[in-house]
Amino acid sequence: MNFIQNDLVTKLQTNERYPLTDEHPHEECGILGICAPGEDVSRLAYFGLYALQHRGQEAAGIAVSDGQKLDMYKDVGLVSRVFNPSNLADLNGFLGIGHVRYSTFGSSMISNVQPFMIDTRFGTIALGHNGNLVNAGKLRRELMENGIGFSSTSDTEVMTMMLAGADGEDWFEHIRSCMRKWQGAYCLVILTRESIYAVRDPWGFRPLSTGKLPGKGHAVASESGALRTLGCTAIREVQPGEILRLSGEDLTIRQGIPPAEPAALCIFENVYFSRPDSNWDGMNVHQIRQRLGEQLARETRLTADEVIPVPDSSIPAAIGYARASGIPYNDGFIKNRYIGRTFIEPTDSLRKLGVALKFNVINENVEGKRIILIDDSLVRGNTTGALVGLLKEGGAREVHVCITCPPIRHPCFMGVDMGTYEELLAHNMSEEQIRDMIGADSLYYLSLDGLLKAAGRPTGYCTACYTGNYPIDINGALSKTRFEGSRVSNCG
Amino acid sequence: MNFIQNDLVTKLQTNERYPLTDEHPHEECGILGICAPGEDVSRLAYFGLYALQHRGQEAAGIAVSDGQKLDMYKDVGLVSRVFNPSNLADLNGFLGIGHVRYSTFGSSMISNVQPFMIDTRFGTIALGHNGNLVNAGKLRRELMENGIGFSSTSDTEVMTMMLAGADGEDWFEHIRSCMRKWQGAYCLVILTRESIYAVRDPWGFRPLSTGKLPGKGHAVASESGALRTLGCTAIREVQPGEILRLSGEDLTIRQGIPPAEPAALCIFENVYFSRPDSNWDGMNVHQIRQRLGEQLARETRLTADEVIPVPDSSIPAAIGYARASGIPYNDGFIKNRYIGRTFIEPTDSLRKLGVALKFNVINENVEGKRIILIDDSLVRGNTTGALVGLLKEGGAREVHVCITCPPIRHPCFMGVDMGTYEELLAHNMSEEQIRDMIGADSLYYLSLDGLLKAAGRPTGYCTACYTGNYPIDINGALSKTRFEGSRVSNCG
Amino acid sequence: MNFIQNDLVTKLQTNERYPLTDEHPHEECGILGICAPGEDVSRLAYFGLYALQHRGQEAAGIAVSDGQKLDMYKDVGLVSRVFNPSNLADLNGFLGIGHVRYSTFGSSMISNVQPFMIDTRFGTIALGHNGNLVNAGKLRRELMENGIGFSSTSDTEVMTMMLAGADGEDWFEHIRSCMRKWQGAYCLVILTRESIYAVRDPWGFRPLSTGKLPGKGHAVASESGALRTLGCTAIREVQPGEILRLSGEDLTIRQGIPPAEPAALCIFENVYFSRPDSNWDGMNVHQIRQRLGEQLARETRLTADEVIPVPDSSIPAAIGYARASGIPYNDGFIKNRYIGRTFIEPTDSLRKLGVALKFNVINENVEGKRIILIDDSLVRGNTTGALVGLLKEGGAREVHVCITCPPIRHPCFMGVDMGTYEELLAHNMSEEQIRDMIGADSLYYLSLDGLLKAAGRPTGYCTACYTGNYPIDINGALSKTRFEGSRVSNCG
Amino acid sequence: MNFIQNDLVTKLQTNERYPLTDEHPHEECGILGICAPGEDVSRLAYFGLYALQHRGQEAAGIAVSDGQKLDMYKDVGLVSRVFNPSNLADLNGFLGIGHVRYSTFGSSMISNVQPFMIDTRFGTIALGHNGNLVNAGKLRRELMENGIGFSSTSDTEVMTMMLAGADGEDWFEHIRSCMRKWQGAYCLVILTRESIYAVRDPWGFRPLSTGKLPGKGHAVASESGALRTLGCTAIREVQPGEILRLSGEDLTIRQGIPPAEPAALCIFENVYFSRPDSNWDGMNVHQIRQRLGEQLARETRLTADEVIPVPDSSIPAAIGYARASGIPYNDGFIKNRYIGRTFIEPTDSLRKLGVALKFNVINENVEGKRIILIDDSLVRGNTTGALVGLLKEGGAREVHVCITCPPIRHPCFMGVDMGTYEELLAHNMSEEQIRDMIGADSLYYLSLDGLLKAAGRPTGYCTACYTGNYPIDINGALSKTRFEGSRVSNCG
């Protein structure tokens, strides 16, 4: 969080550093809640988190309750690294919440890893959060003035402490009283001794769905794809402003506070974040992305020999572009998939070869061809430029870069690390300059109208990163960012 | 190695177990050799091995020489786990060889991890091997009768000891005298204090290529894709029976022993093993696989709504099938990509959901559709059956399974773990029985003729796994396998 | 802490379990604070903690400040395991505090490891604590009623939160206002951005000393032995109720609140806890223990052939006993010293051999001899009984057990894990019963008068574990313990 | 091994480096063999190795057989670090051998860790070795000329390969034929599928004892103290040149080759290496050391106030000195006992404080006193000099250093790392120079006659390190050392 002072740092072990080589905007977290009477909830949560891994690769945690007491395990690393048969076996219970986390390097503090678990006057609770409170700094300062100390820089700890001191007779009321004060993006799972509560902010910035487990009970997760991994049926998106309680075999849904008008669903979930097998705002993401490609084909009307995706995220759009344009779809790149925990610096001779360590071109597929390269976003431009270069070295005659959304010109303050104004290419350069920088023969962005048309409806989305029209007042956050030039650290 | 007694076991730590859930045949190893005067060879080798990781995920090792002495680091695990900045920095030199290894579980002994490094009367050598000696058991017994002890069960140690006792005046002659005795598949890299030697067996079972580094010197690797990752140019496949020496800036190529007639290149490298951006027998693998799909389309002439690949290996063939048939290509599955070191058992309720942990169906893409599912091999049938089931649950009207090679009816004794006769589905069942077992509406295999036609030439390939016609006498190996019922453990 | 609810558990990894085979009472923590302008404080703190390791082997942590921001590293394990050159190098600063921790198994929660570091309205602070607040449960409940949540079960977090909300204009006043509310044993080091504050409770239960560093600045530590390891001179014990500030080259000493009358220094520091090279209440501990042995010789007037200590803690007293009695001193036991992190269960055949795994008898030294065995405490009796058995099997003719303090009949509520009433042998058995249980020919305890005489003054010590006369009201703690039967978990 | 080429290095992970701060000569290995029908031999071996840990702290390993097949686990580190419940549980069998290893830093290669396990024409064997073959270099070169390669620099691998190629009808004969060729110090345990063989060289350089287990079967170990930890009775030292077979419940003892005349038992086992509760050459080591002290008192006839040992190894001699002289025994130093895996460099200010990190003086015990400081050896002088300095700073009036053996002037070639001629203080300086260097008021060494008298007999000991009279021809080894100036690396 940009407005939280930064002098509280518990070091990660140095061998736990992660390279930040990806230039995609980073989603900041995935959450999960499962109430499965009679089941071993920790293993269910493990596989559910595994299906949410794309939303955060830096840290993972699971908290469970057996109806009597809460227990938790969390650490930095991928889900498959954090958990093993032994520590999962120690997490006994039928109620569980889970969290995967992404954050920028500066804030990769072990003390920020979620869930957060505290003893309160209402009993012990654990909390997982996806999003970003715009007014977290103000709320944190108020609590500190009241004599409360904070052991992390996370807005999630602020939310947890507010719940510990909340008014009301029951958890629905505690949560509701806090929702009235929270400004920003938040999807929460809250574990108590007997129940799980799930909350979505009134704007609906981030996704959250619920479903019925194949056995007894229900689950909530950031994405329906994770619910389907758990075998859920009767999947339904949680609506903006709703509070759910999962308790025994029961699912209770209440309107916590009224939904904002209009809603402000993050359209970048469609473009990049969500799994293609998830639904978002009632539509399947793979199909939306195909439509983005189709729309882009209609807007660009390019002549070429092949449509090639940047793997893996742009494949659906490339399929759509190829279908709408009639230009054949093909692979142009092979991606090295084996993920490591340690970052080895390339030698100088390898550095000159650029992204070849992550991508190899299939020369035979591109040689002498006019290529349409489909990518889903262009933030800092390094990777795209290198890919264009690889295609040209591989013998491509022309390379036309088509981006499946408009230029990103504004930072996000609702839980996505887009970078600062300084870092945003499209904030600082014209499309011609960008085209030249990346060495493409032409560069096209999908229009905002085309994007909204493909997404399925003209309003109800947050498009601030394209337009600068933020759905809520982000003055505090914005000015801070400008003054301090620091990265947004949030999502808890 | 199936014929080597099995009572010599140095245990892996139990947290290093890997799940064997994939039903693909397993390639057994990738090798690499780099002579780069003036360069930090260990980091080059690291990135080269990273590009060969698909050929072996169980263990990795690098041995280097600075012209004075050899040094080595190896361990079980992925390349990115075995190596870190610290242990790479300790490996100083400009000559280096590397190895990635796959093996069946029973033989995942730390003592079998490569390279092997020994002191000999000719000086210290290190050796990396991809392949399988058919007569390793006989050779090992002969050496043991001469009073030699073995600290591993690997045929690579047999080869290493034979080199230590070989005749001849120089390493070309030492190697040549051994090649006369070695029966089977072998590609070798041999590191001495001053040079690297690379060897390919006279049948040419496994691939090996060499190229010129962007700076000084040369490299060899199992696949040209790895050479391209290193920025190599002037890439050339090592020919059957050749011995190469990389020394300073020089590359020396000699015919070690005459090539076998006809050659016996493993056709499964085309079908499954090699990276799509590698070349094999002069052709690009991605393009061969597209032709496999095109040929399959011509042979099957099915009517359907969509062509769907099993990701990732069947994508090129599915692109080819779609092009040749005119039926649209689409994604049907999302694959979970985050690889873990620890295997967590699914709960019972998840187990019933089958492969959903690894694959989710995109229901919206398959609902009500007639699907052609492209897969590159069908060995034991579990995964394919589960995928067909997922498509049907997702609403697919018809599922037609098309395999891009003929039925695999015979084990491989040249370095690939296909399984035993008992395990090979097509050895024990008719195509109709298999079709019913996997729940497909129809099942098609590419014909052997079609396979060879797509591969580009009618002879020179080993097709023993389809036909049982082994290019060399495997009686010893075969009978042993039958008697002992044990898995082939080799490639070292 | 016994009165803090126990349903908040972050699991340790299972391979971090420590065997609790020692039957000595357990000291609960050592603290350290160093202000060393121009020095690398983290390495100084490392060696200082290493010298305090005997006070807590379960966990260790260091927090530092460079005058601008605080940084911290802590983990479970011995000091030498928690810290390595890399994580120490990341802790930059000239101000540092450190902590080593012991706790009973049930409370070995990672969230309880110290120091605690939080952001407050007064800036960031880190805190290390040795002791136990008797009224922590009441204070914690009050804070929770005010809406504060707690992420650990430690009384240290309670103290930290109280400091965050304390009154007063500066840290002297903040601390003083809290001291007025804290009942029990506490020595604290508090790190702020610019200074270190050290605090000792008005009863003086636990030791704390300060000294001048050989370079610039000062240090405080639980024991003077640790200060001497750091090369300190001008060592002075912090007096009950004092607050010290270490800042730049200055040491400021103030009386925080008036000292209690009489003082209540823990006499068990003399008997067992403190290093023999430390001073306690103005006297050297090794010499006090020699006097305990001398006094015991005078009280027992036994006839025997050899005086043998239970190594290592009873050696000084055995030297004193031998001197006063004229009976020769000798070794009777060899102690296995190599400490492991993992507890391997003995086989049944080994289990029958008792403590032989930790101690071997030197038969030749005890055969046919009448032995006086000196031990410093006898809490549960298992080890002493086994040692007597080993001596007898080794051929000893008589074994007379002499304990250098009176029978321990009451639990400690000021930070020492003596065990519950149920566990305390002397609370439940007569001396004759104990003598028979441990198989000794006779059993002697030092008298309380003798103990106080050897310690050097008749009042000013807490002797509650012998007498049940607690120097402060422990009703709350006591009743809780009785009702819940649970172990004391404290010292943070 | 000094004569084995050094270009074969498999790196240890860098965090496994051990500081070499101790100036004692280093014992090089302990061995163990257990045949315990019906027992879990791996746990027995674990506790047996734990009792031998003082003989080697660098690496440990256990190999077992269940009568059908052999299995092994070994790694660098202390016994308690190498083994855990999981890897011990994987080692099933009733026959087991174990090894702990010390070696100089340069040779701490993972490939040298023992036991060595190999497949031979006689079946699989595993071997553990304590000692050093003087002619290992020659034997290794002969084997290499015969075409054998070596994967380590250890003389143990040479011995293993010689056994693999040995003549004879059974293992007694195989071993006997090798003993005829082996020159130097060796105690061996050899595990086959059905039995354990134990061997001691004809000179008897290193100790080896056998005993009857409390259940069925027998054990052998380097020291009787380890056998007593296992509860053994009927303990007997293995005689020079003997071969033992442990098989089922049977113990078979044969004379392998005739014992050398005279024997050459290492007298330094008495002085320093062996546990005080072990027997060596029929006498208890603690009592021998007491006699060393008594003899030294008679030879020196000093007047002083206190006798102080360098803990822990000089305690028995100090007790003896005090008894014979009538001067009171006391502690002067407190030793920090918590052993770490990682070596943290002291700060400059700490470095000036010298050994204070490992030892603190108890000032109150030495102030104004005339001190006799008992030490068991003085090799390089750094530690002794620092201890004298600490005593003087602590206020000692006089410090008289008494060493319990003669000056060490010659390197050992039979398995002990004494250092080279260049490093041996007494080879290069007069006693007066040494006395001045260490700052003592006087310096006394025990006479060779006095040493032999205290040891109990005038011949049969190797005293080469004092006299230079080597019991076997070490010309090869000696000249090599002089030419290469390298450390002896052996014991395997």
Low-confidence stretches of chain A: 1-22, 104-108, 478-492
Task: Report strand order across the widest sheet of chain A.
Answer: 5-4-6-3-12-11-13
Distance between the termini of chain A: 8 Å
Fourth-level CATH superfamily of the largest domain in chain A: Aminohydrolase, N-terminal nucleophile (Ntn) domain
Tally of helical segments of chain A: 18
Short description:
Chain A has 492 residues and is of the alpha+beta class. Helices cover 29% and strands 25% of the residues of chain A. In chain A, strands 5-4-6-3-12-11-13 form a seven-stranded antiparallel beta sheet.
Topology:
4 copies of one chain form a homotetramer.
Chain A: E1 8-10, E2 26-27, E3 30-35, H1 41-52, E4 59-65, E5 70-76, H2 79-82, H3 85-89, E6 95-101, E7 116-120, E8 123-133, H4 136-145, H5 155-164, H6 171-179, E9 184-191, E10 196-200, E11 209-212, E12 218-221, H7 224-229, E13 233-237, E14 242-247, E15 250-255, E16 265-266, H8 268-273, E17 279-280, E18 283-284, H9 285-300, E19 306-309, H10 315-325, E20 333-335, H11 348-351, E21 359-361, H12 363-366, E22 370-375, H13 382-393, E23 398-403, E24 416-417, H14 425-428, H15 431-438, E25 442-445, H16 448-455, E26 461-462, H17 464-467, H18 475-484
Parallel strand pairs in A: 16-26, 19-22, 22-23, 23-25
Antiparallel strand pairs in A: 2-24, 3-6, 3-12, 4-5, 4-6, 7-8, 8-9, 9-10, 10-14, 11-12, 11-13, 14-15, 17-18, 20-21
